[in-house]
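Obj: model holo form, ligand = phosphoenolpyruvate.
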Amino acid sequence: VKFVYDFTEGNKDLKDLLGGKGANLAEMTNLGLPVPPGFTITTEACKTYLDSGEEPAALRDEVSAHLEALEAAMGKKLGQADDPLLVSVRSGAKFSMPGMMDTVLNIGLSDKSVQGLVQQAGDERFAWDSYRRLIQMFGKTVLGVDGELFEDALDKAKEAKKVTVDTELEAADLKKLVTRFKRIVKTEAGRDFPQDPREQMDLAIKAVFDSWNGDRAKLYRRQERIPHDLGTAVNVCSMVFGNLGPDSGTGVAFTRDPASGHQGVYGDYLQNAQGEDVVAGIRNTVPLAELESIDKKSYDQLMQIMETLENHYKDLCDIEFTIERGQLWMLQTRVGKRTAGAAFRIATQLVDQGLIDETEALQRVTGAQLAQLMFPRFDENAKAAQVGRGIAASPGAAVGKAVFDSYTAVKWSRSGEKVILVRRETNPDDLDGMIAAEGILTSRGGKTSHAAVVARGMGKTCVCGAEELEVDTKRRRMTVPGGHVVEEGDVISIDGSSGKVYLGEVPVVPSPVVEYFEGRMHAGADDADELVEAVHRIMAFADRKRRLRVRANADNAEDALRARRFGAQGIGLCRTEHMFLGDRRELVERLILADTDAEREESLKELLPLQKQDFVELFEAMDGLPVTIRLLDPPLHEFLPDITELSVRVALAEARKDPHENELRLLQAVHRLHEQNPMLGLRGVRLGLVIPGLFTMQVRAIAEAAAERRNAKGDPRAEIMIPLVGTVQELEIVREEADQVIAEVQAATGVELKLAIGTMIELPRAALTAGQIAEAAEFFSFGTNDLTQTVWGFSRDDVEASFFTAYLEKGIFGVSPFETIDKDGVGSLVKAAAKAGRETRPDLKLGVCGEHGGDPESVHFFHEVGLDYVSCSPFRIPVARLEAGRAAT
Ligand code: PEP
Ligand code: MG
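Output (holo structure tokens):
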């Protein structure tokens, strides 16, 4: 095998082998762009080293050969005393990965060659500054010396000189600093800073290999689900200097605006500086456009190169470049990150430019980006005082009074106040407050902190880890940079999409994309929003491509109509329990409490017309489209008063010697129905089997509603769905009763009804016996919420707020299995059940109606395993449509 590739030998498709950086450097080299010569050591070399603990035997020789070629090309040797070749050593994995070693510059400098550099550059200060940078970077990243020690020494040197910025240090000061730095290395690393340039290079290469297994790198990979066995490549590149005077400099550029997608000149330039100075913010950069007046020749060349790159990559690219004494050099390029809105615009712009086709355009956007565009946002034109910025943990725009504990959040929100819960960090005790709040703001913790995870689960706006904010929960206040104090009750605004925190109320505007889906804004109109236009076109691409149909989880006509506007092709789950709340609770209570058949039948008779009316409205809203109605599912205690509250009430009444007959009966019933694990108890089909008349009442309501709609010339397409089935016997009994009721309604109304009867698959046993269950089911709808709960043994109501944070932090999973389908476990059951079901009944219709139906990654999985449709909440329908289209490309 070959372990080292010259930049002339690679190309952009070799990312697995050369890493992202190396592959793109090679691509640019081969495009004839000015890339400083160099070579890339492959990920294979890294893997061999990590597996065996030793560098592959051939590597040293290959590196020597490539180094010699590089030296020949440059006409000088690495670290040569009178004119040293200097190189940078950079890590570069397939995916860009924070937590890995990044860069060591100026390798090749030593006590001797620094003199040579002084001569060659004609700049003593520059040479010594380069040398001290090398010792500092090398000491920190290769030898593991605490970086602060160097920073401290640098600060002391500045203090001694009474200057504030590095550039004011002179050659003599830097020379002294080099001595200090070397001493730090000696004491801390227990060895001298290596004077042999080849040893410097070899140690740096090894350090890059080792950094693949650094703790932070490993954690990052676990969270991002990047495999641990990819390894990193190492790029060795000849140095060019942007800090050789005013005719030198360094900058970054984008081939178009990463915020809007517009073409133009976007970027920053810093004269007389090296890359890390830009990051360190020592001096202010100037807009890239100003380079034109600073160095017209380089500017024109850069513009030309940017055009070449865009046409070549057919996408927005970002670029790092350096100008050394008027000569432009390209140091890096990659397909650039962009905002969600820009992603849609750029994709359609590139289609219009003829650079990509519709299929490729779909690959350039994601459902997550579309979801981001659908949140309400702060009015961009509003004046707002930003006081901090944290991590954008859960999108949305929230405004409310700051409160510093959960108790106050709940109390204030009960009295109608909008509140933002502000905490240093949250824990499970804050749950009530988080539910009550409009949004959550914390000063500590990252994307997987408790606050972030729980807020995302609740779809609540959250900014976390806003470290500049000093939150003092004891004194109920927070201090913002500059010293302003936000007291409890002061209004603040937080933006969960950008992480920004503002004082006061920032006006919120609805998302134009939602306005579009709602039909309140139109594509193609003269003044149409550019973004809406792009979304409209991409959605059309997706709809043309996708095989999966998309339905909605909706329980009432209003939601059904919205779902239709958003593109739903039916209802995949109507949860009938939502129809038994409010005024009807009392009837349900009576049904549950009934001692005699007569009593029970009485309450069912009263429920029937109400239930029928629900369905009439739903069928009307969804006329011509399938509507899957699920018979009652939840445990009955959900319709009864809370056991503790009721016990107290009865006890008080007894003390007053005034016990209420009904309340006593109710309490008895509550005790009778009380279950330790209600989600595994009397619910779903089990209810239908033990409460006579309940399911048949619902079936009758569905059948009569369908008949009524047919008589009104409507086109109702009802499907009856039985929940929580574990064995075909349960289904057969319910079916038999249902068929009889349907026959009765047909006979009574004279309307022929075609009502499909199917089941949910939400228990492992159902999935495992799907072949049998399909005998009695015309369709399956995978209830992946319960299926995840029962396969993992995770209580869906509790675990996300309890130990999931720990699980996410430990990288046991990168995302909650309630959010994204666990392909290996739950997913393989879905796949097997779908297959077995279709073997029994080839025309079995297959769908999914758990939360996963609207999750991008899960949608791709459901496409792959051949389901017919996904069903999700109305607001997630556009995302599901888009991802179904993407999955089909
Ligand atoms: C499910 O379990 O996935 C499902 C859709 O039903 P529910 O969430 O109502 O239990
Ligand atoms: Mg369920």
